[in-house]
Specification:
By secondary structure, the chain is mainly α. The chain contains 11 helices and no strands.
Length: about 280
Amino acid sequence: MSWVLISLLFWAAAWALNIWLVRHRADRAMTRVLVPVIFGLSVLVLWEGLVKGLGVSPIILPAPSAVLARFLSSTETLWIDFVQTALKGAVSGYLIGAGAAFAAAIAIDRSPFLKRGLLPIGNFVAALPIVGTAPILVGWFGFDWQSKAAVVVVMVFFPILVNTVQGLSETDRMQRDLMHTYGATYMQNLVKLRLPAAMPFIFNGLKIATTLALIGAIVAEYFGSPTRGMGFRISTEVGRLGIDMVWAEITVAAIVGSTFYGLVALAEKWVTFWHPSQRG
């Protein structure tokens, strides 16, 4: 029980420190970094203490120290899985899906017929469960990364499409009349007025798609994959009761997903620096 007591004391101390930082140092940039870091460390310490103090089986829940040891001893395998799932499957599918969604949004913007006909179909397809579409796409494109990229394309296409179409309609009547007064063509209107106004919506869709891309690639590997990949490894290790390896793969997925989201958020900050949401 000493492990449980130590972890609870650490949790209480970390909680009190975070409250003090928020109340007395909330205006400092360092506080915005320290608070989540301290909270994350307290969660790990509490997890470690409860698992060891209560004698929880590693098959049910391994301690963070066991996960870290497995992580460090399996870096080569984790790297191979990362390349297969994240780089080949998720990133390639994300780029293809985002490009196709943007092109489709421009076409829909030009055609009221497509806006009335394609968007409802898009909403229907977006509601289809991945566990139903993934086996079909794996059968079409094979067991390698191409089928995972196809699943990712289907998952990210419609969130980006809907947000882009919505963003392109955000300009008000006065702005459009002003561009018409200047004699602007459709392309000039699009590039100089409507696309800049749509950027916050476009990036909102891109950020939503970052999490969907990795999830889609991992889930697709459950339905057929070569002997590598995060989804393949998780499925295999669960069957072998290697739960520490499962958590190591989950850790890699969390790091990759957070990094991917952060990169898109940084790009948004750079592109939409003029928007009120980006002002300090």
